[in-house]
Design a protein that fits this description.
Rieske Iron-sulfur Protein; 3-stranded antiparallel β-sheet
């Protein structure tokens, strides 16, 4: 999450002189904006602006990445690519969540190659089979001969949870605005988004001009997580369960009026 306006202003004032060319460049882009018009195309294609957004926004603030039901059991993981940074989150056997850069300490290879999956009790790089525990410590060096205890552990990523939602921060020192976000989000009862892992499809009639029935599928599975579908399915289930009237099939013509 972005810091408060006052903290952002303070950070700008403390920015090194090297950022001055960037500020001038952004000021030039802002000056090209016209009231009542969309942003100029440069805001969507300018490489310097994109790099600045990665560094100053995505690389320094809290980012929502997943919900807790997406990694329900020990060894479950999800990977993400945030700009140039590959990272992953993993559920430990004690229920806690770890987050690390998805880069092996040996030769920099990706450790977890899939979007999501089950790693089990350890993580193993496919290149030289260096093995890590779920706390990021090296516990095996394959056939390379190095001593595991002498190796650097995986680089951690700051991670926090809020009402079933998982946030990460890539900065060395994360901003201190997470507690403010907790206070703002708590009334919305985000934990209601936590759902059962599986649910049978249901056919429910919808009131509307066509009277069509729709098939509401539940996609929150271990291989295809999607808690947002749950929120929509709740509203569908609140509709009356009765069959559509005769002649209300999809594509049926309505009687002419007048």
């Amino acid at each position: 999450m972005n810091a408060s306006p006052s903290s952002s202003i303070d950070a700008t004032r403390r920015a090194p002189a090297a950022d001055e060319p960037l500020r001038r460049h952004v000021a030039t882009l802002l000056a090209s904006c016209k009231p009542g018009f969309a942003l100029p195309g440069a805001f969507f294609t300018d490489e310097r602006l994109y790099a600045a957004e990665l560094e100053h926004i995505f690389g320094r603030h809290w980012l929502f990445v997943a919900s807790e039901p997406e990694i329900p059991e020990g060894g479950d993981y999800r990977t993400f690519q945030i700009g140039p940074w590959p990272i992953f989150i993993v559920r430990r056997d004690d229920g806690s969540i770890g987050a690390f850069h998805n880069t092996c300490r040996h030769r920099g290879s990706r450790i977890l190659l899939q979007d999501s999956g089950i790693a089990g009790a350890t993580l193993q790089c496919p290149y030289h089979r260096w093995t890590y525990d779920l706390d990021g410590r090296v516990i095996g060096c394959g056939a390379t001969g190095e001593a595991p205890a002498a190796q650097r552990r995986l680089k951690p990523v700051h991670v926090k949870t809020l009402a079933g939602l998982i946030f990460v921060c890539l900065a060395d020192e994360p901003p201190d605005d997470f507690d403010d976000m907790v206070q703002r989000m708590t009334p919305y009862r985000a934990r209601q988004l936590e759902a059962h892992h599986r649910e049978q499809p249901r056919v429910l009639p919808l009131r509307g001009t066509s009277g069509a029935a729709v098939l509401a599928f539940r996609f929150l599975r271990r291989d295809r997580p999607g808690a947002h579908v749950r929120a929509g399915a709740r509203h569908l289930r609140s509709l009356p369960e009765r069959p559509p009237r005769a002649g209300s099939a999809v594509g049926a013509r309505r009687p002419a009026v007048g």
